[in-house]
Amino acid sequence: MRKRRLKGERLVTLLLLLPSVIAVCVFVYGFIGWTGYVSMSNWNQLLPDYTFVGLRNFLKLFAHPRFQIDLRNLAVFTALFLTGSLIIGFLLAVLLDRKVRAEGFFRTIYLYPMSLSFIVTGVVWRWLMNPGSPQMGSTGINLLLEKIGLGFLKSGWYTDPRVGIKAVAVAAIWQMSGYVMAMYLAGLRGIPEELREAARVDGANEWQVYRYVILPLLRPITLGAIIILGHISLKIYDLIVAMTGPGIGFSTDVPAYFMWETTFHANRFAQGAAIAVILLLMVSLLIVPYLIFSVRREAEV
Amino acid sequence: MTLGKMLPWQRVLLYLVLVGFATFYLMPVYVLVVTSLKSFAEVNLYRMWDLPHSFSLESFRKALLGGFGFTGLAHNFMNSFYVAIPATLASAFLGSLNGYVLSKWRFRGSNTMFTLLLFGMFIPYQSILIPLVQTLMKLGLYGSIPGLILAHTVYGIPITTLIFRNYYATVPKELVEAARIDGAGVLGVYTRIMLPVSMPGFVVVMIWQFTSIWNDFLFAVTIAQNPAVQPVTVALNNLAGSYIVEWNVQMAGSLMAALPTLLVYIFLGRYFMRGLLAGSLKG
User: Fold this and answer.
1) Cα–Cα distance between A61 and A272 in angstroms, integer?
2) Which of A111, A269, A280 sits opposite B127 (nearest CB)?
3) Residue B43 domain boundaries
4) Min CA distance, A162 vs chain B (Å)?
5) Within this chain, do residues B260 and B214 fall inside the same structural domain, yes or no?
6) Domain count, chain B
7) How far is CA A120 from each of CA A20, B35, B140, rounded to the nearest angstrom?
8) Degrees, nearest 5: CA angle A246-A251-A257
9) Which pLDDT score, from 0 to 100, does residue A133 have?
10) CA nearest neighbour of A273 among A60, A17, A106, A8
11) How much of chain A exceeds pLDDT 70, in percent?
């Protein structure tokens, strides 16, 4: 009797999961498979042509100068965005953790950019980083720097191909560093005061407490932050669209942008699919080990 | 209370640094607000940081209703709501069901299934965009609001499932068992035990989903190019990329496009934070 009830219940639970499982199977895994198939086809004009061409689209892609620039830009962007966000986020968390009056007020200000869309961020920062011109004078941040006597820091920002993507990274750090702060702050609150106190009793100074006690304990959070920021960084698209577009000499171009343009403007679907597959592989390298590790560790607990 | 003693000058320095960073984070909002309150006559790139001499709401009116050579964002706002509200509700509901089963009715392979589900939350959507467009075309949903709703609902399932699964894991096993002894089945436990305590979970999930759907650009620009169905992010990007649209109007449009999610953040910040931290796989 009880067994039959269990069996029936098992069926009900599976039925509850079924819609989502089917949807994800089709829309995630099926679609990824189809994109992979398209990436090895000859569909490089408006009408589909599924003739199998092997890895030709990939070989063409890696020989393409624009794609090489994109990969380099993506590496520079990711490195800057990650280090910038991690350092600022950690610094803010440590500072806010020191019994600051009006902590909630500061926290709200540091974190609000997270609630905005990258489009809004891009539109605003495009104007902020508009360098102005030698004839008419500076605008935006350059003007501000001049006003406070830091004129030597003026830059052409995204209009200068040597700066290019680095300017976009500044806007991205502005948007995401508060998130890192929130993660670290939650982590710091979880570390009992006795641990720090014990280290101090042992003669450690404040610097050493952070270096040898706090930072190692926060390692899982640092890892989590790197994964989250890393996958956002590899996928960065909206911000580029709204802020700069591909830029002079593709100085602010990234693979995600190239993919969209190739696919939906140039109708080179197979080529676009190839870029998408490479993006997916890069993100998977970062995410899959972390996912497996997280779920498994949780199952052990 | 031994926070490594801080000297008075250190405390002053601490607050200076905090205020300095606050200024950095607020700088773009300052420009947004100040510029959108200026009239066209007063807008000047080289006086960007100056306060307006007189308050003018002209730029907001133009951003909403349109002006010479461009249409306003008013109907795009409505489009964003038409997409975000149903997709938020649908993905929250599905996530709640999945989270319930995956936390309280584990079966062999349920962890694997969960991992496979979660993967969907991290993929670059570029890798599903071409088949998505093809499928929506076949279904006759391409270029329509229902098409966007479908995409956001499906791709929202992983994160909503994750948040609910972690949330329901905190509901004591004893409660579930007590209900089972009273004869409640799978659905009975869900409606009698889980749903009544689900409110905070739903708030977290719905805030997260609403914010991400409202802020989405990639799906919107791919699926809903047609001006009649464009959500506000796409319309704003077009508005801001147009040379005929005045700068103050662009800023007013940005401010308004940001407002719904900003208000949610300001008034429901605590729940927003929880969703944020759940996104990092920690309950």
Assistant:
1) 9
2) A280
3) 10-56
4) 23
5) yes
6) 2
7) 32, 14, 31
8) 30
9) 78
10) A60
11) 98
Q: Indicate the burial class of A149 (C-beta count within 10 angstroms; 0-12, 13-18, 19 or more).
A: exposed
Nearest neighbour of A200 by CB, restricted to B4, B101, B155: B4
Mark whether B126 and B39 lie in a shared domain: no
| Domain A70-268 in this protein, CATH class | mainly alpha
Cβ atoms of residues A39 and B131 within 8 Å: no
Residue B267 lies in a domain: yes
Separation of alpha carbons A234 and A254, rounded Å: 9
Query: Tokens in use for A297?
Result: 């560790």
Instruction: Tell me: do B217 and B153 sit in the same domain.
Output: yes
Encoded amino acid at A30, one letter: G
**Tens digit of pLDDT for each residue in B147-192?**
999 999 999 999 999 999 989 988 898 888 888 888 888 899 999 9
Q: Do A276 and B129 touch (CB under 8 A)?
A: yes
Report, as an integer, the average pLDDT of B109-133.
Answer: 93
Which residues of chain A neighbour B221 with C-beta distances below 8 Å?
241, 260
* CATH classification at residue B174: 1.10.3720.10
Distance CA A154, CA A130 (A): 11
Same domain, B165 and B35: no
A166-224 tens-digit pLDDT = 999 999 999 999 999 999 998 998 888 888 888 888 888 888 888 888 999 999 899 98
Which helix H or strand E contains A138, and what residues bound it?
strand A137-138
Nearest CA-CA distance, residue A236 and chain B, Å = 9
